[in-house]
Request: fold
Amino acid sequence: MDIKTSEQSGVKVVAVSGEVDLSTSPQVRDALLDCILGGSSVVVDLSQVAYIDSSGVASLVEAFQNAKSRGLGFALANVGETPLRVLQLARLDQVFVIHDAVDDAVSALS
Reply:
């Protein structure tokens, strides 16, 4: 798994690749919370994530709740078929703002 953080129009873009599971989700959580605690809205680019388990979903939910409590934006972008199915099963596709492209998500949050 790899995590790359960049900035576009004042919004942090956290690009995650690989599998997000029990062993890697703490790294995703830390990367997301670092951005949020630093005062930035966040777009999570999941285009390179092939698999996400419940611990990975929990990291996304925690980051979303932290962003919301601080009045910051939080969105997912480029969610692939398998991760989207996991989010749909948990009905989190109704909770998260999901965009087809990172640029769309950044525009919505900036």
About this structure: The chain has four helices and five strands. The chain has a mean pLDDT of 95.
